[in-house]
């Protein structure tokens, strides 16, 4: 009987380990999944007006800050890897948007980061400018973190800023929809996957006793996701067509 009990316990441990690895895999790559249908939507329509590239800005800042937060307070490696994957995903989205916008542009005038024109901030014509901005932001964060790494207050503030920006993820899209008075060009599948992902990761944060900043961020994101879905209901004449 003792041998049977040991085998059962080993099976339970093995199953739990497998589920833990599966959950970690979903956490790392699941955050990038919602952008696949939006990427396809932009490719199909050759139009970027329905998608707010400021979503990319928010996520890039949030995940760069989260990486430096990890340096100061080493939490799950899964969340660090998730940030790296998300940064690469946002660069892929920006590269596509720049390509489509340049193809559709009638005017030969281009807006560059070097123009230092705040009116065209994050509306640059060249993908390289987005890379340069993120590189500069990363260098500034690295220098400040190096100087203040021993400060617990600084590290916790860094973490709070990271999750605050991440919690704002859906706000640019919410405002874009409001400005356009339409959700045309925005992938509803993307928002549904946002919602499912935010529910999953908030549960993951609570179960894994991650820093409080993370589950608070997740809860705020769920509320914003619901607000965007309500916009879809308000602006759309044919819900089934948008889900198709």
From TrEMBL:
GO CC terms in record: cytosol; endosome; membrane; trans-Golgi network
Sorted alphabetically, which Pfam families does this protein's record hold? Answer: PQ-loop
Has UniProt tagged this entry with the keyword Membrane?
yes
Keywords, A to Z, come to: Membrane, Repeat, Transmembrane, Transmembrane helix
| Bilayer-crossing regions | 18-39, 51-71, 77-100, 130-149, 213-235
Write out the GO biological process terms. Answer: phospholipid translocation; retrograde transport, endosome to Golgi
Q: How does it sit in the membrane?
A: Multi-pass membrane protein
InterPro entries the record matches = PQ-loop_rpt, SLC66/Scramblase_ANY1
Q: Does the keyword Transmembrane helix apply?
A: yes
Q: Where in the cell is it found?
A: Membrane
Q: What protein name is recorded for this chain?
A: Solute carrier family 66 member 2
- Organism expressing this protein natively: Pundamilia nyererei
The UniProt gene name for this protein comes to LOC102212915
